[in-house]
Design a protein that fits this description.
Layout (H helix, E strand, L loop, with lengths): L1 E2 L3 E2 L1 E5 L5 E4 L5 E6 L4 H10 L1 H13 L12 E4 L2 E9 L4 E4 L3 E6 L5 H32 L8 E5 L6 E3 L4 E5 L7 H13 L8 H10 L3 H11 L9
Parallel strand pairs: 3-5, 7-9, 10-12
Antiparallel strand pairs: 1-2, 4-5, 6-7, 8-9, 11-12
Helix pairs in contact: 3-4, 4-6
The structure holds zinc ion.
Length: 235
Protein backbone atom coordinates (compact mmCIF):
# COMPACT_ATOMS: atom_id res chain seq x y z
CA UNK A 1 0.00 0.00 0.00
CA UNK A 2 1.29 3.51 -0.60
CA UNK A 3 0.43 6.95 0.61
CA UNK A 4 0.71 10.14 -1.46
CA UNK A 5 3.09 8.01 -3.58
CA UNK A 6 5.71 8.84 -1.01
CA UNK A 7 5.55 6.20 1.66
CA UNK A 8 5.25 2.49 1.08
CA UNK A 9 4.04 0.51 4.03
CA UNK A 10 2.66 -2.85 5.10
CA UNK A 11 -0.20 -3.25 7.52
CA UNK A 12 -0.41 -6.18 9.89
CA UNK A 13 -3.68 -6.56 11.76
CA UNK A 14 -3.71 -8.62 14.89
CA UNK A 15 -5.37 -8.89 18.28
CA UNK A 16 -3.34 -6.01 19.64
CA UNK A 17 -4.86 -3.00 21.35
CA UNK A 18 -2.76 -0.18 20.03
CA UNK A 19 -1.80 1.16 16.65
CA UNK A 20 1.91 1.57 15.99
CA UNK A 21 4.16 2.54 13.11
CA UNK A 22 7.62 1.04 12.93
CA UNK A 23 10.39 1.97 10.54
CA UNK A 24 12.66 -1.04 10.43
CA UNK A 25 16.42 -0.99 9.98
CA UNK A 26 16.02 -1.86 6.27
CA UNK A 27 13.74 1.16 5.81
CA UNK A 28 10.56 -0.89 5.60
CA UNK A 29 7.53 0.78 7.18
CA UNK A 30 5.35 -1.56 9.19
CA UNK A 31 1.99 -0.55 10.59
CA UNK A 32 0.61 -2.82 13.30
CA UNK A 33 -3.07 -2.32 13.98
CA UNK A 34 -5.91 -3.85 15.97
CA UNK A 35 -8.16 -6.09 13.84
CA UNK A 36 -11.26 -3.99 14.29
CA UNK A 37 -9.74 -0.61 13.52
CA UNK A 38 -11.03 0.75 10.19
CA UNK A 39 -8.67 1.36 7.28
CA UNK A 40 -9.80 4.97 7.27
CA UNK A 41 -8.60 5.49 10.83
CA UNK A 42 -5.34 3.69 10.13
CA UNK A 43 -4.67 5.83 7.05
CA UNK A 44 -5.39 9.07 8.86
CA UNK A 45 -3.00 7.98 11.63
CA UNK A 46 -0.29 7.34 9.05
CA UNK A 47 -1.01 10.65 7.35
CA UNK A 48 -0.69 12.45 10.65
CA UNK A 49 2.74 10.91 11.22
CA UNK A 50 3.96 11.20 7.64
CA UNK A 51 6.63 13.72 8.56
CA UNK A 52 8.00 11.49 11.30
CA UNK A 53 8.12 8.45 8.97
CA UNK A 54 10.00 10.34 6.27
CA UNK A 55 12.46 11.77 8.80
CA UNK A 56 13.05 8.36 10.32
CA UNK A 57 13.63 6.76 6.91
CA UNK A 58 16.16 9.47 6.10
CA UNK A 59 18.00 8.85 9.35
CA UNK A 60 18.23 5.15 8.55
CA UNK A 61 19.46 5.70 5.00
CA UNK A 62 22.05 8.27 6.09
CA UNK A 63 23.12 6.36 9.17
CA UNK A 64 23.06 2.65 8.37
CA UNK A 65 23.79 0.12 11.06
CA UNK A 66 27.45 -0.65 11.25
CA UNK A 67 28.39 -4.21 10.43
CA UNK A 68 31.31 -5.35 12.52
CA UNK A 69 33.64 -7.93 11.03
CA UNK A 70 35.94 -8.63 14.02
CA UNK A 71 39.07 -8.40 11.93
CA UNK A 72 42.55 -6.99 12.41
CA UNK A 73 42.62 -3.21 12.64
CA UNK A 74 38.87 -2.76 13.00
CA UNK A 75 37.72 -0.10 15.44
CA UNK A 76 35.87 -1.31 18.54
CA UNK A 77 34.64 0.71 21.49
CA UNK A 78 35.11 0.23 25.20
CA UNK A 79 33.67 2.74 27.71
CA UNK A 80 33.32 5.34 25.00
CA UNK A 81 36.88 5.08 23.69
CA UNK A 82 37.95 3.61 20.34
CA UNK A 83 40.45 0.77 20.18
CA UNK A 84 41.89 -0.96 17.15
CA UNK A 85 41.50 -4.70 17.18
CA UNK A 86 44.91 -6.34 17.17
CA UNK A 87 44.81 -10.13 16.89
CA UNK A 88 47.98 -11.90 18.02
CA UNK A 89 49.09 -15.39 18.85
CA UNK A 90 49.79 -16.09 22.53
CA UNK A 91 50.33 -19.01 24.91
CA UNK A 92 46.74 -18.67 26.08
CA UNK A 93 43.61 -16.77 25.23
CA UNK A 94 43.42 -13.32 26.77
CA UNK A 95 42.81 -9.67 26.02
CA UNK A 96 45.03 -6.74 26.82
CA UNK A 97 44.28 -3.05 26.38
CA UNK A 98 46.96 -0.66 25.24
CA UNK A 99 46.38 3.03 24.81
CA UNK A 100 45.10 2.57 21.29
CA UNK A 101 44.63 -1.18 20.79
CA UNK A 102 42.50 -3.97 22.10
CA UNK A 103 44.91 -6.86 21.74
CA UNK A 104 43.38 -10.32 21.51
CA UNK A 105 45.82 -13.15 22.04
CA UNK A 106 44.69 -16.52 20.77
CA UNK A 107 46.42 -19.88 20.79
CA UNK A 108 45.55 -20.60 17.16
CA UNK A 109 44.34 -18.66 14.19
CA UNK A 110 40.62 -18.06 14.71
CA UNK A 111 37.82 -16.95 12.44
CA UNK A 112 35.89 -13.74 13.06
CA UNK A 113 32.96 -15.37 14.85
CA UNK A 114 35.39 -16.98 17.30
CA UNK A 115 37.07 -13.60 17.82
CA UNK A 116 33.66 -12.13 18.50
CA UNK A 117 33.01 -14.74 21.21
CA UNK A 118 36.33 -13.96 22.92
CA UNK A 119 35.70 -10.22 22.75
CA UNK A 120 32.20 -10.55 24.17
CA UNK A 121 33.41 -12.82 27.00
CA UNK A 122 35.86 -10.09 27.89
CA UNK A 123 33.21 -7.36 27.59
CA UNK A 124 31.03 -9.35 29.96
CA UNK A 125 33.76 -9.85 32.55
CA UNK A 126 34.49 -6.10 32.55
CA UNK A 127 30.78 -5.29 32.68
CA UNK A 128 30.17 -7.56 35.67
CA UNK A 129 32.49 -5.42 37.81
CA UNK A 130 31.82 -2.01 36.31
CA UNK A 131 28.02 -2.30 36.08
CA UNK A 132 27.73 -3.57 39.65
CA UNK A 133 29.91 -0.79 41.04
CA UNK A 134 27.89 1.85 39.17
CA UNK A 135 24.65 0.20 40.17
CA UNK A 136 25.59 0.47 43.85
CA UNK A 137 26.61 4.12 43.46
CA UNK A 138 23.37 5.02 41.71
CA UNK A 139 21.35 3.09 44.27
CA UNK A 140 22.95 5.08 47.08
CA UNK A 141 21.80 8.32 45.42
CA UNK A 142 18.35 6.87 44.70
CA UNK A 143 17.93 5.88 48.35
CA UNK A 144 18.21 9.50 49.40
CA UNK A 145 15.18 10.16 47.18
CA UNK A 146 12.90 7.56 48.65
CA UNK A 147 13.76 4.48 46.62
CA UNK A 148 13.85 1.86 49.34
CA UNK A 149 13.97 -1.39 47.39
CA UNK A 150 17.13 -3.28 46.69
CA UNK A 151 16.51 -4.57 43.18
CA UNK A 152 18.46 -7.40 41.61
CA UNK A 153 20.53 -6.61 38.55
CA UNK A 154 21.57 -8.73 35.63
CA UNK A 155 23.39 -8.13 32.40
CA UNK A 156 21.78 -9.19 29.17
CA UNK A 157 22.35 -8.82 25.47
CA UNK A 158 19.29 -6.95 24.33
CA UNK A 159 18.61 -6.09 20.71
CA UNK A 160 16.70 -2.89 20.96
CA UNK A 161 16.76 -1.47 24.46
CA UNK A 162 19.40 -0.34 26.90
CA UNK A 163 17.73 -1.64 29.99
CA UNK A 164 14.52 -2.81 31.58
CA UNK A 165 12.88 -3.06 34.97
CA UNK A 166 10.40 -5.84 35.69
CA UNK A 167 7.48 -5.64 38.09
CA UNK A 168 9.29 -8.02 40.45
CA UNK A 169 12.09 -5.49 40.77
CA UNK A 170 14.70 -7.01 38.55
CA UNK A 171 16.74 -4.59 36.50
CA UNK A 172 18.41 -5.76 33.31
CA UNK A 173 21.20 -3.77 31.75
CA UNK A 174 22.28 -4.25 28.17
CA UNK A 175 25.85 -5.54 27.88
CA UNK A 176 26.23 -3.19 24.88
CA UNK A 177 26.44 -0.29 27.35
CA UNK A 178 30.05 -1.37 27.92
CA UNK A 179 30.83 0.25 24.54
CA UNK A 180 29.35 3.60 25.54
CA UNK A 181 30.76 6.35 27.83
CA UNK A 182 30.30 5.55 31.51
CA UNK A 183 27.91 8.49 32.09
CA UNK A 184 25.50 6.78 29.69
CA UNK A 185 25.55 3.67 31.87
CA UNK A 186 24.77 5.82 34.92
CA UNK A 187 21.85 7.35 33.09
CA UNK A 188 20.34 3.98 32.14
CA UNK A 189 20.72 2.71 35.71
CA UNK A 190 19.03 5.84 37.10
CA UNK A 191 16.26 5.53 34.55
CA UNK A 192 15.58 1.92 35.51
CA UNK A 193 15.78 2.72 39.24
CA UNK A 194 13.04 5.32 38.75
CA UNK A 195 10.83 2.52 37.42
CA UNK A 196 10.92 0.96 40.90
CA UNK A 197 8.61 3.80 41.94
CA UNK A 198 6.85 4.56 38.67
CA UNK A 199 6.45 1.79 36.10
CA UNK A 200 5.32 4.09 33.29
CA UNK A 201 7.05 7.05 31.69
CA UNK A 202 4.60 9.51 33.19
CA UNK A 203 5.13 12.97 34.64
CA UNK A 204 6.01 11.60 38.07
CA UNK A 205 8.59 9.29 36.57
CA UNK A 206 10.38 12.16 34.84
CA UNK A 207 10.11 14.40 37.91
CA UNK A 208 11.97 11.75 39.91
CA UNK A 209 14.57 11.20 37.19
CA UNK A 210 15.14 14.95 37.03
CA UNK A 211 15.88 14.97 40.76
CA UNK A 212 18.22 11.99 40.62
CA UNK A 213 20.01 13.13 37.50
CA UNK A 214 19.25 16.71 36.40
CA UNK A 215 21.31 16.36 33.18
CA UNK A 216 19.80 13.05 32.04
CA UNK A 217 18.77 14.45 28.65
CA UNK A 218 22.40 15.02 27.67
CA UNK A 219 23.28 11.41 28.38
CA UNK A 220 20.27 10.16 26.49
CA UNK A 221 21.27 12.23 23.48
CA UNK A 222 24.81 10.83 23.51
CA UNK A 223 23.41 7.29 23.57
CA UNK A 224 21.15 7.99 20.64
CA UNK A 225 23.72 9.85 18.59
CA UNK A 226 26.67 7.55 19.11
CA UNK A 227 25.21 4.07 19.31
CA UNK A 228 25.59 3.37 15.59
CA UNK A 229 29.01 4.94 15.37
CA UNK A 230 30.18 2.86 18.33
CA UNK A 231 28.74 -0.32 16.87
CA UNK A 232 26.38 -0.89 19.77
CA UNK A 233 23.48 -3.32 19.25
CA UNK A 234 24.83 -4.51 15.94
CA UNK A 235 23.94 -8.15 16.02
ZN1 LIG B 1 11.83 3.30 30.97
Amino acid sequence: MSFNQKIEFNIIKSRRKTLVIQVKSNGEVLVKAPIRLSDKKILSFIEKHQGWIIKKKHQIINNPKKVLKYIQGEKHYYLGNPFKLDIQIGFKEFIELSETCLIIFTRNKLNSSQIKVILYDWYRRQAENIFLARFDQCLTIAKTHGIKDRPSMNIKRLKSRWGSCSSNKNISLNLELIKMPIHCLNYIIMHELCHLKHMNHGKRFYALLEKLMPDWKEHKLVLRKRMHEYGAMTF
